[in-house]
Amino acid sequence: MNPERCKVDEALGILVGKWKPIILLHLFNEGTQRFSELKRLMPDITQKMLTKQLRELEEEDIIDRVIYPQIPPKVEYSISEYGKSLQPVLDIMHEWGTAHTNHMQKKRNSQNASNAL
Amino acid sequence: MNPERCKVDEALGILVGKWKPIILLHLFNEGTQRFSELKRLMPDITQKMLTKQLRELEEEDIIDRVIYPQIPPKVEYSISEYGKSLQPVLDIMHEWGTAHTNHMQKKRNSQNASNAL
DNA sequence: CAGAATCCCTACGGATACTG
DNA sequence: CAGTATCCGTAGGGATTCTG
Asked: What range does the record give for the signal peptide (chains A, B) (predicted)?
């Protein structure tokens, strides 16, 4: 694989954004969710950011957005068929991330131990 | 998996940074490299950025940094034993990224086709 | 050679207020 | 309910200069 053809950045581009992984996690776990339900699942996100990140994921075909023309409005979000192809990517990243957390924890512990001498 | 335990962000944190994936790619492909060799492989990166990203990767134990105390200085970088565990993560991200590039390309093509009607 | 230091600019993200 | 619109602070990244 030569540098020009490295597509890691493409995958990275989809996932970066402070809230995207957690949004995807909720949609994968909980299935279809309304805007307000997602907001309730993530109390710390602002409406602006939730909207923006959802739009970006939609733009990349990862999620579907269904608008029910009614009052009050109702909009449902879900992982698209295509978006499901992200599952293994997220899985392996989560797996490695978990291991890495442990690795760095041990590192700090051993550093503290030697500092304590 | 509950949101509190989602560690995708941990993995993401290692890889984000405009140059990290490409730096890792070179170290995985070319093996041990000096600072100046990496700079030559990535003409567009500034010394400041190269230094910074290498330091961050070192901080996370992903790469080893070996200093040869001589004049002129010589510093070699390489993927650490632990860092090799990132390989499958990068592989699957590259694979998905490649597929995604094709997916979006086709999407744009079909959009252009319908616009041309 | 391998950096450190400085300055600068933009994009990301947060807070708040408004609307069909 | 599901968004816009606006303002604003910070961090990431780039250009340039200096140094052991």
From this structure: none
